[in-house]
Write a structure and sequence with these properties.
Two copies of one chain form a homodimer.
Chain A (H helix, E strand, L loop, with lengths): L2 H12 L2 H9 L5 E2 H5 L6 H13 L3 E6 L2 E6 L1 H30 L8
Antiparallel strand pairs in A: 1-3, 2-3
Helix pairs in contact in A: 1-4, 2-4
Chain A binds a DNA duplex (30 and 30 nucleotides) through helix 4.
DNA sequence: CTAATCTACAACCTAATGGTTGTAGATCTG
DNA sequence: CAGATCTACAACCATTAGGTTGTAGATTAG
């Protein structure tokens, strides 16, 4: 899987408010799928699918404890998303820097 | 529109590699829609739709120059997305801090 | 003026999304 | 053991998304 593939999965997973909420809630300690589902006005199966999307994106990991599946957010992946946006900003700043360089260079390429 | 609504739009816009590419390319100077479309193996109309998605999300602004529409990325919105992920990280760190606090507090709530 | 270019938008198609219900396998509880 | 709970998964449905082609309005070039 390429980096772009991973970015697709991560941003897509983040593009749903229920999933963002699940992500936040499972940062604050491990919760089972049904515990996560409780507050939402949707079926357990729907929440389960949301968790699966987060899982596929690597934003969350699951591990069994008896009959329940505990969900924990993987901060490294959240940070990878941050890094991507930081990269965007770096490109932006590089452009600004090039621009101010041109302004500050006296007579660059002027006629002799 | 709520903050969650905006987050939906922004992350959804970022969840497509063509749109991320358009975003990067229009950080590096203003480009017309058809100039943006040229490198991609898809119709102009398709690229136009992608630009529209970025526009609705506020990641990009358009302004006319003659018959062409120049596209410029709005860094403030990119930074807003960064801020959202930073907020996630803050929640995460707060949890870690609470945890280490408990460890470092001697005999808190112990039997008298 | 005429022809070419740039953009917008509608209509259409297919595949993916977000939701539902129902079934079934594990695991715990009494 | 019997019943309840937790999870997974399939089948289905309605809507959205990403793509296409085609039409039409401005603007520029010759």
């Amino acid at each position: 899987m390429t980096g772009e593939d991973r970015a697709d999965l991560v941003f897509n997973a983040l593009a749903d408010r229920t999933r963002r909420d699940i992500l936040r809630r499972s940062m604050d300690g491990e919760l089972s799928v049904s515990a996560l589902a409780r507050p939402y006005a949707m079926s357990l199966a729907a929440v389960q699918k949301h968790v699966a999307v987060l899982d596929r994106a690597g934003l969350v990991t699951k591990h069994r404890r008896g009959r329940e599946q505990l969900v924990r957010t993987d901060m490294a992946t959240v940070q990878a998303a941050q890094a991507l946006l930081d990269e965007f900003e770096a490109v932006w700043r590089a452009r600004i820097d090039r621009f101010t360089d041109v302004l500050n260079t006296p007579n660059e390429g002027a006629a002799p």
